[in-house]
Amino acid sequence: MSNSDDSAARAAGKRPEEQRLGPVLRRRDQVQAGTTDQRLLDSDGPSEWVHTDPWRVLRIQSEFIEGFGTLAELPPAISVFGSARTGEGSPEYAAGVEIGKALVEAGFAVITGGGPGAMQAANQGAVEAKGTSVGLGIELPFEQGLNPYVDIGVNFRYFFVRKTMFVKYAQGFVVLPGGLGTLDELFEALTLVQTRKVTRFPIVLFGSQYWGGLVDWLKNTVIAQGKASEADLLLFHVTDDVEEAISLVTKEVGK
């Protein structure tokens, strides 16, 4: 139908057979009443549109823009993962503080998930060493909030946007003992390196006693059954020594 036919149909009170809304084409019973501008400028009407998938796309886009804009000028950085449940008086917490300090002294900013526990420990170490302390938070049903040692913080709605920031702005990962969220971040990093979706970066697991069972399972079950190769064990390092962890990161990123 031509534009003149369309106008004539509208004038006669008939629905046009074809409607173009920007890049979208609608025909027959999919034609909508009114125009896009009309719906945008109309202050009345339902508000369900803010929960639709097209609107979510804009929210996702805005989160990428905020993240990229905030983190683009960071110095070289390392992402530190670990449990939100790590107690402040525990040896694991103390190790996190030490790692945060050592990373700053080696010339890195420290990026964490911004929460409590091991994340807070690494941020605390970065602040005490007068370095750049970054926290990338996530919206959860149980509110955690950014820990008080975060100097640059960004809160995200979407996990996948947050994960992109962890990978894009870090030259390596240090993984402290943690739960399902930490394992998720660890295996995503391993997968990205294994599949060469990213330029290889170092992944250091801190705490051989904690990670030993996982490494044994990878060797004796996953690799033994042909689900992965022996070479995949070279994608990460396991250590109990802070200096060695920092040395591995420093060496592999050429600092």
From TrEMBL:
<comment type="similarity">
    <text>Belongs to the LOG family.</text>
</comment>
<dbReference type="InterPro" id="IPR005269">
    <property type="entry name" value="LOG"/>
</dbReference>
<feature type="compositionally biased region" description="Basic and acidic residues">
    <location>
        <begin position="14"/>
        <end position="30"/>
    </location>
</feature>
<keyword id="KW-0378">Hydrolase</keyword>
<dbReference type="Pfam" id="PF03641">
    <property type="entry name" value="Lysine_decarbox"/>
</dbReference>
<protein>
    <recommendedName>
        <fullName>Cytokinin riboside 5'-monophosphate phosphoribohydrolase</fullName>
        <ecNumber>3.2.2.n1</ecNumber>
    </recommendedName>
</protein>
<dbReference type="InterPro" id="IPR052341">
    <property type="entry name" value="LOG_family_nucleotidases"/>
</dbReference>
<dbReference type="InterPro" id="IPR031100">
    <property type="entry name" value="LOG_fam"/>
</dbReference>
<feature type="region of interest" description="Disordered">
    <location>
        <begin position="1"/>
        <end position="47"/>
    </location>
</feature>
<keyword id="KW-0203">Cytokinin biosynthesis</keyword>
